[in-house]
Amino acid sequence: xxxxxxxxxxxxxxxxxxxxxxxxxxxxxxxxxxxxxxxxxxxxxxxxxxxxxxxxxxxxxxxxxxxxxxxxxxxxxxxxxxxxxxxxxxxxxxxxxxxxxxxxxxxxxxxxxxxxxxxxxxxxxxxxxxxxxxxxxxxxxxxxxxxxxxxxxxxxxxxxxxxxxxxxxxxxxxxxxxxxxxxxxxxxxxxxxxxxxxxxxxxxxxxxxxxxxxxxxxxxxxxxxxxxxxxxxxxxxxxxxxxxxxxxxxxxxxxxxxxxxxxxxxxxxxxxxxxxxxxxxxxxxxxxxxxxxxxxxxxxxxxxxxxxxxxxxxxxxxxxxxxxxxxxxxxxxxxxxxxxxxxxxxxxxxxxxxxxxxxxxxxxxxxxxxxxxxxxxxxxxxxxxxxxxxxxxxxxxxxxxxxxxxxxxxxxxxxxx
Amino acid sequence: xxxxxxxxxxxxxxxxxxxxxxxxxxxxxxxxxxxxxxxxxxxxxxxxxxxxxxxxxxxxxxxxxxxxxxxxxxxxxxxxxxxxxxxxxxxxxxxxxxxxxxxxxxxxxxxxxxxxxxxxxxxxxxxxxxxxxxxxxxxxxxxxxxxxxxxxxxxxxxxxxxxxxxxxxxxxxxxxxxxxxxxxxxxxxxxxxxxxxxxxxxxxxxxxxxxxxxxxxxxxxxxxxxxxxxxxxxxxxxxxxxxxxxxxxxxxxxxxxxxxxxxxxxxxxxxxxxxxxxxxxxxxxxxxxxxxxxxxxxxxxxxxxxxxxxxxxxxxxxxxxxxxxxx
Lengths: 417, 327
Description:
The complex is a heterodimer of chains A (about 425) and B (about 325). By secondary structure, chain A is of the alpha/beta class. Helix content of chain A is about 50%, strand content about 10%. With about 325 residues, chain B is mostly helical. The radius of gyration of chain B is 29 Å and the shape is flat.
């Protein structure tokens, strides 16, 4: 009895000691990294683990640090990890000095109160296209500088379309697209592949169709939303799209398209580099709206953000680093490596001059919408998850599009309150 | 150890009564107390690393998880650390959620069906390999492969094999004239598919433990039984199975606790989909806490705690069974 009590006391004491150690650890970390502009180490997080320190991007980041008179310690992690790690780091009081995050994450981090406004830091965002900047705006204030933008379009395989007797120019709306898919199937090839996975990627890919029908994210179960989901379901049911779109990430969907068996693939700007390696001739179409015209597409791409620091003396150097990363010359280099569209029209012109194939993408980006724009902010995640669940339950044959979206709307109402 | 202590004490003991007689009795008492305190401190010093380890890696995380599930965390209060105490609200939210019922049901089906097949297959293989034929050792080693592979490798391989468009399994079905099955994309098959993969992964564990249990059954029993004219089936039913019961109980209960919390396999293969048709408490907890852009830490932790509670019940059951066996 006496022994167990002593062990308990011992355990409590150690827990106490540990938590205070952890607290000290957090505190000393931020003070050890130096104050003001007099050298020191600045931490930098980005979601580009594919680039190591010797890559063009890695060298650019460290050069921007050297130019500002400091050493930049760069950490790259998976994009889904980044948001969670950022929240944890902010809770421990050791958020990085500069952080590149996927644009829909910005609103979550702002809601958590861990990002600085660009106006407070004195960062210049005048040259940046309004709709791209919009994805990082909450309540009229901007919280980050876009490093580049990407969006979705339809890649098509010229050989498959020619063999099936389809003229890509004839694809103008949903009906003509479905007709083209049927012709392709009749010719013994596969129709279209996309990603309808149960993650944010699935919602990202569904949005052009949802918005192309005139859908409104605050009303998932409207007739317009149902029309978009019915289109996808029809394709899967008739075998115009494969069943495994339910598991496809955008990468695996690209791999399917790259086999050369598919006529169309819905994918992003970032696949342009791979498209040249695919070994067949391809073209790019903007995603059609239900009754013609280009559908609004969601903006993708990362924002350079500056998390709140206890020591506000660090912001001067941070500002220099951010300005360096988003300067026109560096944006051109960065967006070329990432295969992104630059956020300023000046750099876009240069990009198109260097590579005319980018023209349709620049147009698509100009017509794109932020997912969290339109006052949605952190409501977007609570809508997006029920939406991808609805897509999954309709495509897998579990529910009708209307029933699936009714459930989704109910879940979104509950989550948003 | 004990011998050394006796040796050291031996020369002193004759001096002791004299000491006690001349000096004040309080002195002797102080000396003894001092000595006892020193040994107590030594004991504590030996205990400290373990206590520290337990506290840092078990007590504190559990405490944090409980704390998370009892507070109303938003992203803002998570960072600021001032989330208001909300009692059992998170648990209520979770229990009222339409996902809870199916997730609970899937967890139970997943666990019990997996265990049943793993155990049956493991036992059959163990009995088979106990016959010591040529190549038995090599074959047995081959059966351990699922255990040696990193889970991400085996789960990804399974999801390729079960792919509805290009999977090898559907191709095999096609060659024998069976219509393709949407293993991972149909709400009717997704749970079955992850169970199949999990059974495959769990067989080696059952095989190894049951095989080692078989080694402990004396061969004379079988000799005697065959002299009495017992057939193979009777030998298994009357000797192998009853004598293997203690090992079986432990295998089943450990398997239960392991299988309840299986997360990575399901997440890699289906992410709980399509539309939650293969989501278990473990994947749902992750989905809530990390699966969307706006994390719901409170409800996520609550689901995690429910899972821990279920595992605890089985754990206690295991301890009881073990005690009864020892008694």
